[in-house]
Structure formats: structure tokens, C-alpha cells
Amino acid sequence: MSELFRLSGAGNDFLALVEPATAPSPETIRDWCRRGVSLGADGVFVIRREGGGDLVAMDYFNADGGWAALCVNGTRCAAQLAFHLGWPEDALTVRTGAGPFVARRLSNEEVELEMAPPETAPRAVTLDVDGTEVRGWALVVGVPHAVIPWPEGLGTCPVGVLGPPIRRHPQLGTDGANANFVRFAGPHELEIRTWERGVEGETLACGSGVLAAVAVGISTGALELPVRARTQGGFVLTVDGEAAGGGVTRWTMAGDARLLARLETYPAAERAFPETVW
Fold first, then answer.
1. Which of 192 and 2 is assigned the larger pLDDT?
2. CATH number at residue 35
3. 31 within 8 A of 269, measured Cβ to Cβ
4. Domain of 8, in residue numbers
């Protein structure tokens, strides 16, 4: 098997394979990502060199084994791993299912991405969640997102209660969406918690969710670039760029992206684990 690495980006943790002969199966990904009984992770990605090393192809898989077009924190970690392997010096392009991203290494623990803005503006939605009206915004930043303003403060936000039905709400499409609960703390600051599809739980950070929240904040006048976004894991992701006409015309995201370990797995990491019966 190819080398397996563990990385973290602002609290999103990943397992990564470098140029494997074949990508891991959905069953293997699900087994590896089970916390407590196996390695545990929010997702798995595979990277391969293209064009001499300055271009890196990335395939990302959620913890449920399903392929996803984009994971922004995962993309920053993929770039950090490529830098660690010595493929480029300090800049490269990562080709994802949502398009190419220019990555720059700021340090051994930070990476900045430059990417295209959303193709469409946020769409206001009113969701019926178990008889309660929840107002927010829907948009796609590589993958679908719902952004729910929560001005009361995220410490008391019932993410575990509201997250699952919003994530699967029929108004957000057949594949559902990530559910982001956001407090705009000032014109240049936001706080965010995310219930992620494919993980089916709250994660410590979601990079594309931060970008979705920034897009909503700019379109509604609540935010101005640059924006510091504080995640559930306590890390701050900084979003900068250019905005005009209530929308983003160019943006970057910089923040934590760390290589944690190189792993050797044993068969016990891929056994058929029992499921909870209640």
C-alpha cells in the first residue's frame, strides 16, 4: 500500500494516500474513518503529481466513503503534504473536482488558497424543520451549503438537533447540504459551527462552509473583506480578496494546515465493525 499520512486543517482531520496504485474502496474509507475503533477521520484524500509536480491532482472522499467535489480544508492539507514531499517549493495548483486552486505555503503549519468565487449569489430559503421556520441562505461553494444566521450566540445553538434535518432538507436538493450556523460578530469577523454531510456529524471546521458564510455576509452587507472566521476547533481562517456589487469577485483563504503523522496500518484497521443498534 502507498504511504498513509494524517493531517489536520483547522480541526478537520484527514487521512491521505500518495499516488496509490488504486484509490481505497468506499468500504475501506468508511472503516478507516470510524472513530474509536479505527484510525478516525473526517475524510480521506488521494494526491498525484501531474505536469512535473507544480500541478497536483486531488480526489477527496467523505467519511461515508462517497466522493466529494471539494473540501477546502482538505485541499489546503493536500498542498501542505505536497510541499512536505518536495514536489514544488512553495506554490502549486491543486486540481479538485470543483476546479483548480492555487496554493501557497505560508509556513509548515499554514497554507493559503486562491480560488474562483461562487458562480451564483446566495438564495434566501425558509425551511420547515419539525414545524419550526428556519430562515437562511442556500448556495454552492464546490458543494452545497445552507447558512443559518444565529445571532444569539453559537454556544447555545442546537447544532445536533437542527443540523441533521437541515442537512437533508428537500429544499436543498436531492444530495442535501452542509448546515452552517453563523454569527456575524462584526464587519470583519464571524463565528461558525457546521454539521457536515458525508460525515453526518458536527466537525471542528469546514473551509467551504466558511466561504459560504462569507459570501452570505457580503451579499447581505453584514461583512466586508478581510474576514476572520473562528471555527468550532478554535482556529481562525482568514478570508480576503475583492468584493463588488454585493458579491465576491476574487477570494483567498489562509489558515492552519498541518502534517501530523505517517502511518502504517494493520488489518485490524479495516475489519467489519459492528454498527450501533439504537
1. 192
2. 3.10.310.10
3. yes
4. 4-106+258-270
pTM over 0.70: yes
Residues with a known catalytic role: 71, 206
Contact 255, 226 (CB under 8 A): no
Predicted pLDDT of residue 1: 54
Identify the pLDDT of residue 118: 84
Query: Nine-digit cell at 80?
Result: 501542505
Q: What is the pLDDT of residue 205?
A: 96
- Distance in angstroms (rounded) separating the CA atoms of residues 198 and 33: 11
Contact 267, 255 (CB under 8 A): no
In this predicted structure, the answer to whether residue 220 has a pLDDT above a threshold of 60 is yes
Write the CB contacts of 177 (distance below 8 Å, at least 6 apart in sequence).
Answer: 138, 143, 144, 145, 146, 166, 167, 169, 197
* Longest CA–CA separation in the chain, Å: 55
Are residues 130 and 233 both part of a single domain?
A: yes
